[in-house]
Amino acid sequence: MPLSTELHDTYRTRELMEALLADPRQLGPDFQPIHSLTGGNLIGYKATGRGATGTELADTLALLDGARTLGFVERIDWAFRALAVEDMLPRPWLELHLTPEPETFGTPVAPRFAGLMARANRELTIAAEFHAEAFAPGARLDAGLAEAREWGWKIVLADVSDDADALAKAASIDPDIVQIDLRRAGRDQDHGVQALLDIAGAAQAQIMALGVDVPSALERAQLMDATLVRGNLFGHPGPLPGA
Known about the structure:
alpha/beta; 17% strand; globular
């Protein structure tokens, strides 16, 4: 890529990031329902951020890649968390699941969001998902876990079964919930999945099946004793109903 084109793309990304921070509502969030497999009832939502619709950052991964390139992850992450909890505060009987980015572990809440986040920690049940990136060297995992527990958040171990290093460290976080992604191929013979189930058993954690998009996936979730499910069979990501 010519240097002039690369610089233009960087400037364009910076402009989009600054626009998102000036008007964080463009970050979404999108919410996907989480249901109880035993009772079938709605128990909460997973919130996911994205860039402004119609821009190069509309995709979640593109947003994070751009934020990392420019060193904006911490600012974007706190703005997104604040949006998500603000939307959920009128629904305190439902859980809110978030994925804190490793760059934000141990960082102070942005002052303009401090009051809102303090209220959310008092009034909402929030769960923090820890993905493979959280276990990488230098990711300050201990700080992320410590602050989540201090705030009273649940600890969710994401499906790290395809990352040997993360899986080796995963048992130490003593999760409240362990996720297993049924969209990945070969789940039934995957030794990593059994390791996750063993971690859940040792921690007496709930099992959440992800990717429950078709009835056959729901049957597989039941066979692995999942108690929570998330997938398109129960609802696609989007705005909160009635919001």
